[in-house]
Amino acid sequence: MSFMKKCILHNFYSPKNFKETGPAWIFFYFLFACNTVIAQSKTEQVKNTTVGKAEQSNLRYQVINALENSFGYDIFDHNRLMIHQPSIPGLPGNKGFTKKAAAEKVARLVIDKISRNIMPPTITQKEMDSLHIKL
Predict the structure, then answer these.
(1) d(CA 110, CA 84)
(2) Tag placement on the chain: N or C end, fewer CB within 10 Å?
(3) Closest listed residue to residue 107, CA positions, set 82, 78, 135
């Protein structure tokens, strides 16, 4: 047995030293147990978070002007900016939609996904094609 282990076992677990160190170990064990319980309850709260029906009805979009005469959109929840999308989602670069109607279609799809609790509301190329948006 190593010297360090002997010192630890002798000092903390010997009957004559338990009166001195025992209450400290009990206190640290209690703190550890409380911390574990608090961390587990916070994890459960995050898992159970969903978008409620009251929040769904307060989602709205606004088409915005983007770079080089293109369009993007903003999504608002209770008049608070939730998503700012000045470019076409899923494509590299800063290019926006060439038509305002295309930005409106995608913004409506994003709101639909949020209201169905699909987070993040990612837009795929296949969904763009189904909306008849030409890029």
Answers:
(1) 12
(2) N
(3) 82
Domain assignment of residue 14, given as a range = 3-47
Query: In this predicted model, what pLDDT tens digit does every residue of 82-111 receive, in sequence order?
Result: 999 999 998 899 999 999 999 999 999 999
Residues 61 and 111 in one domain: yes
For 13-34, give one letter per residue: b (16+ CB within 10 A) or e: eeeeeeeeeeeeeeeeeeeeee
Q: Is residue 114 located within the same domain as residue 61?
A: yes
119 Cα distance to chain centroid: 9
pTM of the model: 0.58
Last residue of a domain, one of 47, 62, 83: 47
d(CA 25, CA 35): 15
* 116 has pLDDT over 60: yes
CA gap 134, 50 in Å, rounded: 34
Residue 72 pLDDT exceeds 50: yes
